Amino acid sequence: MRPTIAWARASRLAEQTPPTRNRFVDFLRAASITIVVIGHWLMAVPSLEGGRFSMGDMLRLAPWSQWLTWIFQVMPLFFIVGGYANAASWEAARRAGRPYDSWLADRLRRLVLPVVPLLAVWSVLALAGSWIGIPPAMTEIGSELAFTPTWFLAVYIMVVVLAPATHAAWRRFGLASFWALIIGAVLVDAVAFAAGLGWLRWANYAFVWLGVHQLGYLWRDGKLRGTRRALACAGAGVASLIFLVFAASYPVSMITVPGQELSNSRPPTLALLALGIAQLGLVLSLEIPARRWLERGRPWTATVLVNGTIMTLFLWHATVMVLAVGLAYGLGGIGLGSAPASASWWATRPLWILSLLVALSVFVAIFGRFEQLGRLAAGRTPTTWQSIAGALALCSGLAVLALVGIGAPGGQGFRFGVVLLTFAGAALVASPLPRGRSGASP
Question: How far apart are CA 158 and CA 107, in angstroms?
Fold first, then answer.
């Protein structure tokens, strides 16, 4: 789709926005994903020195850059926005008398369908690479980088599945439902670090991300209205983060640093939760002027444009980078000669990001239609068990792909079982099975 056509379409949609819609929520969703994309492109340090290729990481090569993750790690903010949006959507569904199975099917389709072409393309690349003799290790490394963003999707899908239950807990217990999750996260970190039980820390994928998601309900209910309250919240989050880093020896980086023993994001720690609290307070302190600004045509149209294919942008940005690096290497290392983190390397970053944005726009034009299908899909609704079973299968597959990629040593160099599991999960979510006479599921 040409840029002018896409802008015109977004402009028409922007003009139809109901006056009651909180445009700031949509803006934060678009802004957070944009920051993630640019952050990933800046973190990657591909280089070719003396004929030897390497894919470095800025956080490791330049430790000072780890402080920048306090700005670029915005996934907590995305989960907060998700909490607000899920609350609004579920409340509207309940007012309209829509059951859980119908609501869940709509939410999952929007998240799942954009994954299908990504999985299909990488399956073809892996099989073709094995056929023409590309070492499985190269496919494994490239696909691991490409599927790294899917860890977020795997977690967020399960948060959506649980949203009606967590929203009910919020309605009944209020902030106590948030603090219960915080206490769980504190206990997990305390016991895991004190007893050296690293496996226990994985429980914080539930406690931390569900806790951050509850903050979206807090925002939705207007519990932090007013600049003073918002700034107090931000201050509490920053103070907690400083305490955890300087007094409790949590890592500085809010993103995993290759080779570093402890990570704040994989699995998540209390530091990431503190960052989410700080981000919530900061954005709420800006909400009133931001909503006035978004009443203007251009910024709101740009927001609508980005949100129209936001999952496609997010899912394909790492693949675009991997393919661009592969192309540069194949062309003799063009653009890969600067010493990592040098002045000349930094001087080329604007051109690097611009080139990747242009390439990404091509992929969005091709694959963005799957996201639109997710928004427009109608017909029979999957049963509750089918949607949940599909979500579990899909998330399990995506989690493995995010950890080890689609390539595998030996054999065909391809993780058939994991790919089939992921495709099966997507099919269950997107393709309803025939129902019995009982009609809608409870």
Answer: 11
